[in-house]
Design goal:
By secondary structure, the chain is α/β, with parallel strands linked by helices.
Length: 160
């Protein structure tokens, strides 16, 4: 099972991956509420790659909680899904992708900018993301990845 991550600022929430299915999406929404987050504030669901444990809850979250949210995935994996056998034995719903994710693309929401890195390997269109976060007042960059195969090393903060 894959961990879901969310980033909140004054303009809303960016969700990275969505889990398996409707039940998982409901569990995710309940967990968010326990943390004081409102799933209706999700503005983007960024899907790291085209495996159902990462995209399976995306459409449910959009339909049930945040209809204006954009579901984003690399278009290579969107095409990859269209030729892969549908995983109906597990009941997964393939999302209606609203926007593509490309290498070097910046996704902005309020004062948060997510940098997209194409990192194929796990699937043809896998992406990783670099997200600025504040840790006790110190700005850091958090890397979200699938199984990282970055084209070059990401510079590390020397203070750590």
């Amino acid at each position: 099972m894959c961990l879901r991550v969310y980033y909140q600022n004054s303009k809303g929430i960016i969700l990275i991956d969505s889990g398996w299915d409707e039940a998982y999406a409901d569990n995710l929404a309940d967990s968010m509420k326990k943390l004081g987050l409102n799933p209706k504030e999700i503005k983007y669901t960024l899907v790291t790659h085209g495996h159902s444990d990462h995209y399976g809850g995306s459409q449910f979250i959009k339909d049930k909680y945040s209809p204006d949210a954009k579901i984003a995935m690399n278009l290579v994996d969107k095409r990859f899904l269209s030729v892969m056998p549908h995983e109906t034995k597990f009941g997964f719903t393939r999302p209606k992708v609203d926007m593509g994710l490309e290498d070097g693309q910046l996704i902005k929401l309020g004062d948060t900018t997510v940098q997209i890195l194409l990192t194929p390997g796990h699937t043809p269109g896998s992406v990783s993301m670099i997200v600025p976060v504040t840790d006790n007042g110190t700005l850091r960059k958090n890397a979200e990845d699938v199984i990282a195969r970055l084209p070059k090393p990401v510079p590390r903060n020397k203070e750590r």
